[in-house]
């Protein structure tokens, strides 16, 4: 008996996918491209990501009673499985990147003496727990673990007004092309939202349902980059490996509470773990759809361990993770535009028979 | 990361905790798990044996930057 | 006849009184408290009154059963069914019936009824005069509140159902009975409000209770472990209460109450996690006070769970989180201590738990003094001996006090237990360990159900209507709907309207 995932939970998952890693890497290349106008990049990228999602929504409308995954597999098995395999590769890269990033961040800032492998092992263990509990439990957990971080980010402007220098933001719109380039870098991360239409195996996808989540995601990322710009200025921010962490280290409420960064960092960590968990769940679903007779919950541990090993292998160093942001728009952008277009053109309901496959 | 003990330990832990599931499930699950675990061990051994390892991160960096 | 055969008699009564009496005496061999009162009536008929001394109300038995029987003996002479005539017309006890099967007669005897056997009559008259002395209705010792009713349930299930009926004067309050326990034959009532409670949940509870096969049930905790959804979870999935007002509130919200004979603690379900943090005082005081108390409790839940783990994490891994002067004083305090922060904290925590447990069994006079002060005094001595440092004593005391603010004992114990794995994780991974522990706990909680209702209902899955009673307590005039898992009838009141202040709105009319 599959219980439904509610709209709020879907929105929260969308926010997680935009925010948890999306606030970390893009700011540096964005600011290098657009300098003080970089904050517009997230907004433009957020609007741009609506296009592929709208295309997926249009494809879903052709199959009102079945989920997109079922439509793909049943209507065009080879195309469907090919698309799923492509998704599998792209999101396998994503999960390896996310694991490596989380582990590197923990190792650099919090636990320098702990081996990377051990930290990665704990992260993968948590992700496997998410998968074995199922998507319903994971979605519920996202409503509990996601909002604290989002709420804290919304409080940031009030806490940082004393140190802000709005002069850093002017002149406004000095480089429109730079803004376009910056939005490309942000789009490279926002494109991970392409997971959402295929994530819930028994639920139809409606773009209108996740619009609030996308809006919140844009707001959170924009607040973070604006904070970095007004506190540090464009020149200094590009020197950081992890600008948001440096931003929250500036939080000072009184003399006593001058290290609130740990609280916000502690609120951020579950969002990253959730993202890894949901991506792992998706990879297990893809594996089950491609390999017949596979049980998703049993596949979680092997896929997780392979992702862990690959997270150590794929990337030379933690710095390379940030540098890859510049290549992401090409990889993810092509993926994010190619797949919906392909599905839009190819996937149509059968015209000869009136009934589409119903499987409720 | 000189030896491949960590990944073997992790795989053994995973096998022990999932043992009941693997025993009662369809054969495809066992093959899938075996394939992925073997791939993980091979990649790890390969990684720890070569200092100048080809890495996909470097490939992507080389192509697109 | 072997002992086993005598213990569970089969068969029916015969016409001869002596044989019937002998059969029953064999069943109750070596039971000195079973009394066989032989009678000879005026018309020569022999009879025998059997009862268990101490279980029956002897005055009622003699006034309303024995005397009418003796006086009506002449009317029984020619009756073909004297037992029925006695039971239905002549005896003036509130409840009476006739049985022929020996098993039923033995069962009634052990329940506290008296049995009247007559010669040449194969039916026995059962006179239900259950008495015996039991504890009277007193104040609750475990759930104390400043404002609100003070009476508590007792061990007698009839008194408990009466206490509930005093509060809910409606025929919609249904009580379905079940008998659990082969030796104890404990009466269990499942109470619910028809048209408010979900029928499926009621049926689920009844099925699970009826499926219990056990020797004896002495407390509702036995039944709780049999009917809960997740037996291996540390979190309680059913609440227990000693107070009729709490039980009535549960019924009004659409929950099911399980009353068990022999214990004053009744079970209620389905529950949510948030409900375990609520106390009846939230609802009896005005909503300002109720909200403040609730927020206080939630913050102290956080303290009770996380303070020792955060202390260990911060002092071991993240010293830069603390203000400099505090770091210096903690470092100075810990300089001479040979143990790492985890061992210090574990020593003190375990000692505190031991003191708390011991304090339950100490006589009341010194019990209270030993629990809290004992921890501090012993802690102070330990500090002076150089075993633990002073900050740890403070942390542990604060944690202990915080855990006492949790209203439900079963949740408080769970929180105390969960502290220890969090401390271990904190000592290994610092703040990340605490975060991981939290994530694992949240995953567990999100998957937990109580009689089919998700444990975190209200927040995950989100129910807008339930928000008025989770983290805040909306005023009574605004809480017009019942919680989301009660069945169809969600409307508590006609329309939630603020009470009109009348003339007193602008300060009243008097000069």
From TrEMBL, chain C:
GO CC entries: membrane
Transmembrane annotation, as ranges: 295-314, 385-406, 418-435
Question: Where are the residues of the annotated region Disordered?
Answer: 487-511
- A Pfam family in this protein? GerA
Biological process terms in GO annotation: spore germination
Record keywords: Membrane, Transmembrane, Transmembrane helix
PANTHER family linked to this entry: LEUCINE ZIPPER PROTEIN 4, SPORE GERMINATION PROTEIN
Entry's family note: Belongs to the GerABKA family.
Q: What is this protein called?
A: Spore germination protein
Organism whose genome encodes this protein = Paenibacillus faecis
């Amino acid at each position: 008996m599959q219980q439904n995932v509610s709209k709020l939970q879907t929105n929260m998952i969308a926010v997680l996918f935009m925010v948890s890693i999306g606030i970390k890497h893009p700011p540096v290349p964005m600011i290098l491209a657009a300098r003080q106008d970089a904050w517009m990049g997230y907004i433009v990228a957020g609007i741009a990501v609506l296009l592929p999602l709208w295309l997926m929504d249009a494809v879903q409308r052709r199959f009102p009673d079945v989920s997109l995954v079922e439509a793909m597999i049943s209507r065009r098995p080879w195309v469907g499985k090919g698309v799923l395999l492509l998704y599998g590769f792209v999101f396998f890269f994503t999960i390896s990147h996310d694991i490596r990033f989380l582990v590197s961040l923990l190792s650099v800032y919090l636990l320098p003496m702990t081996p990377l492998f051990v930290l990665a092992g704990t992260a993968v263990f948590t992700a496997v727990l998410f998968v074995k509990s199922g998507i319903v439990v994971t979605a519920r957990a996202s409503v509990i673990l996601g909002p604290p971080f989002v709420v804290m980010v919304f409080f940031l402007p009030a806490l940082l007004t004393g140190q802000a220098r709005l002069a850093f933001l002017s002149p406004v719109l000095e480089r429109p092309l730079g803004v376009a380039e910056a939005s490309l870098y942000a789009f490279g991360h926002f494109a991970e939202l392409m997971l959402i239409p295929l994530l819930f195996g028994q639920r139809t996808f409606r773009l209108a349902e996740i619009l609030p989540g996308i809006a919140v995601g844009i707001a959170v990322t924009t607040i973070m980059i604006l904070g970095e710009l007004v506190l540090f200025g464009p020149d200094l921010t590009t020197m950081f490996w992890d600008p948001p962490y440096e931003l929250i280290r500036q939080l000072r409420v009184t003399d006593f509470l001058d290290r609130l960064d740990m609280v916000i960092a502690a609120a951020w960590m579950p969002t990253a773990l959730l993202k890894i968990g949901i991506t792992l769940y998706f990879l297990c679903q893809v594996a089950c759809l491609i390999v017949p007779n596979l049980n998703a919950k049993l596949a979680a541990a092997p896929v997780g361990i392979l992702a862990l090993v690959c997270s150590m292998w794929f990337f030379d160093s933690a710095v390379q993770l940030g540098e890859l942001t510049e290549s992401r728009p090409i990889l993810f952008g092509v993926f994010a535009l190619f797949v919906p277009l392909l599905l839009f053109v190819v996937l149509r309901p059968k015209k000869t028979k009136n009934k589409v496959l119903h499987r409720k | 990361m000189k030896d491949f003990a960590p990944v073997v330990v992790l795989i053994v832990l995973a096998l022990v905790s999932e043992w009941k599931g693997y025993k009662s499930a369809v054969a495809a699950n066992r093959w899938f798990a075996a394939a992925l675990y073997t791939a993980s061990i091979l990649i790890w051994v390969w990684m720890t044996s070569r200092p100048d390892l080809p890495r996909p991160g470097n490939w992507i960096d080389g192509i697109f930057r | 006849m072997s002992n086993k055969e005598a213990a569970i008699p089969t068969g029916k009564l015969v016409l001869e009184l002596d044989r019937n009496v002998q059969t029953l005496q064999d069943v109750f061999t070596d039971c000195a408290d079973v009394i066989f009162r032989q009678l000879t009536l005026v018309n020569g008929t022999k009879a025998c009154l059997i009862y268990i001394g101490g279980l029956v109300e002897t005055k009622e038995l003699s006034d309303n059963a024995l005397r009418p029987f003796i006086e009506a003996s002449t009317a029984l002479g020619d009756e073909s069914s004297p037992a029925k005539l006695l039971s239905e017309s002549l005896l003036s006890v509130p409840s009476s019936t006739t049985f022929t099967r020996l098993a039923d007669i033995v069962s009634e005897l052990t329940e506290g009824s008296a049995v009247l056997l007559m010669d040449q009559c194969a039916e026995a008259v059962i006179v239900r005069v259950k008495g015996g002395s039991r504890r009277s209705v007193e104040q609750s010792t475990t759930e104390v509140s400043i404002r609100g009713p003070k009476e508590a349930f007792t061990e007698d299930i009839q008194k408990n159902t009466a206490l509930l009926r005093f509060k809910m004067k409606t025929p919609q309050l249904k009580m379905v009975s079940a008998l659990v326990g082969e030796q104890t034959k404990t009466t269990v009532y499942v109470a619910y409000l028809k048209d408010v409670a979900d029928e499926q949940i009621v049926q689920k509870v009844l099925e699970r209770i009826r499926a219990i096969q056990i020797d004896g049930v002495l407390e509702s905790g036995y039944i709780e472990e049999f009917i809960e959804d997740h037996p291996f979870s540390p979190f309680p999935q059913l609440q227990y209460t000693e107070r009729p007002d709490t039980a009535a509130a549960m019924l009004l919200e659409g929950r099911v109450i399980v009353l068990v004979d022999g214990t004053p603690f009744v079970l209620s379900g389905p529950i949510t996690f948030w409900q375990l943090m609520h106390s009846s005082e939230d609802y009896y005081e005005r909503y300002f006070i109720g909200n403040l108390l609730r927020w206080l409790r939630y913050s102290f839940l956080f303290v009770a769970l996380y303070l020792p783990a955060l202390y260990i994490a911060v002092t071991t891994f993240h010293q830069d989180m603390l203000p400099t002067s505090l770091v210096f004083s903690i470092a100075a305090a810990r300089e001479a201590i040979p143990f790492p922060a985890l061992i210090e904290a574990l020593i003190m925590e375990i000692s505190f738990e031991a003191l708390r447990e011991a304090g339950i069994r100490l006589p009341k006079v010194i019990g209270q003094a030993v629990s809290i002060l004992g921890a501090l005094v012993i802690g102070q001595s330990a500090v002076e001996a150089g075993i633990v440092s002073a900050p740890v004593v403070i942390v542990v005391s604060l944690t202990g006090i915080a855990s006492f603010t949790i209203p439900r004992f079963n949740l408080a114990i769970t929180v105390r237990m969960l502290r220890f794995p969090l401390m271990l994780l904190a000592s290994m991974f610092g703040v990340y360990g605490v975060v991981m522990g939290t994530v694992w706990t949240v995953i567990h909680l999100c998957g937990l159900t109580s009689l089919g209702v998700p444990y975190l209902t209200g927040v995950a899955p989100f129910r807008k209507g339930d928000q008025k009673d989770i983290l805040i307590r909306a005023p009574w005039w605004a809480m017009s709907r019942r919680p989301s898992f009660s069945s169809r009838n969600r409307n508590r009141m006609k329309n939630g309207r603020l009470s009109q202040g009348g003339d007193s709105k602008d300060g009243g009319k008097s000069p």
